[in-house]
Amino acid sequence: MFETRPDRDAEVVLVGRSNVGKSTLMRELTGHSFDTGQKPGVTRQPNHYDWASEDFVLTDLPGFGFMSGVEADRREQIKTDIVRYLEEHADRIFVGVLVVDGKSAVEIIDRHSGPDSIPYDVEMFHFLRDLEIPVVVAVNKMDKVDDRDERLDELCDRLGLYPPWQQWRDTIAPITAKRGNIEPLTEAVRTHLHEANRDDLFTFF
After folding, report:
1. Of 40, 47, 50, 186, which sits 20 to 30 A from 198 (CA to CA)?
2. What is the pLDDT of residue 1?
3. Order of strands across the sheet with 135-140?
4. In the 3-class helix/strand/coil scheme, how is the chain assigned residue by residue?
5. What are the pLDDT digits (tens) for 139-172?
6. Which pLDDT score, from 0 to 100, does residue 183 have?
7. pLDDT tens-digit profile of 67-76?
């Protein structure tokens, strides 16, 4: 199903729950509009954006987790497809951007935490790390968050990162994609590209 990937050796992927603003962020990064919807699950296939002359592709993977109006087995299939895609292309993915909603991420993680369950966001964070893909958590919609530092510290704690969040600036990037405030993200992505000796990709960030 996910066979549309352009033949490129360098890739940055956006992953995250439905409705956290991945497509909006994609638009900010590329200047190109993608289908976005108020309804979760609008993006069912990966959106790839590649620059014809460059060996690089930016990919917005479908949202995972609960989607109203989408059957459970379909949701599981999407998640399976995402996992398979990441495994298959891990050696070419230089950064995995996990997009979360700054206002609700901690509550969602806590609601789905239990002895037998790992919340999707936490699971995806560690899965990317297990694949040795550097992860940047784009904490979106920060304009709606009052207790900014406290909220980001709580998120670090849930992800297994020792607070305060400020020491994880290459991993935690507070942004507001809708307003074009994404500099913490582009700086974090550049840090990882630099470590991979790919400063040539800075032009995209």
Report:
1. 47
2. 53
3. 47-50, 56-60, 10-16, 93-101, 135-140, 172-174
4. CCCCCCCCCEEEEEEEECCCCHHHHHHHHHCCCCCCCCCCCCCCCCEEEECCCCCEEEEECCCECCCCCCCHHHHHHHHHHHHHHHHHHHHHEEEEEEEEECCCHHHHHHHCCECCECCHHHHHHHHHHHCCCCEEEEEECHHHCCCHHHHHHHHHHHHCCCCCHHHHCCCEEECEHHHCECHHHHHHHHHHHHHCCCHHHHHHC
5. 999 999 999 999 999 999 999 999 999 999 999 9
6. 97
7. 667 787 888 8
Q: Which of 61, 77, 82, 53 is nearest to 13 (CA)?
A: 61
Q: Are 95 and 134 in contact (CB under 8 A)?
A: yes
Q: CA angle, 58 as apex, 72 and 23 as ends, to 5°?
A: 50
Tokens of 185: 């993200």
Q: Which residue has the tokens 């398979």?
A: 84
Per-residue pLDDT tens digits for 15-55? 999 889 998 999 999 988 765 554 544 456 788 888 767 88
User: Regarding beta strands 172-174 and 47-50, do their DSSP bridges make them parallel or antiparallel, or are they unpaired?
Assistant: unpaired
pLDDT reported for residue 168: 97
* Separation CA 24–CA 36 (nearest Å): 7
Is residue 140 within 8 Å of 174, Cβ to Cβ?
no
Residue 153 and residue 164 in contact, taking contact as beta carbons nearer than 8 Å: yes
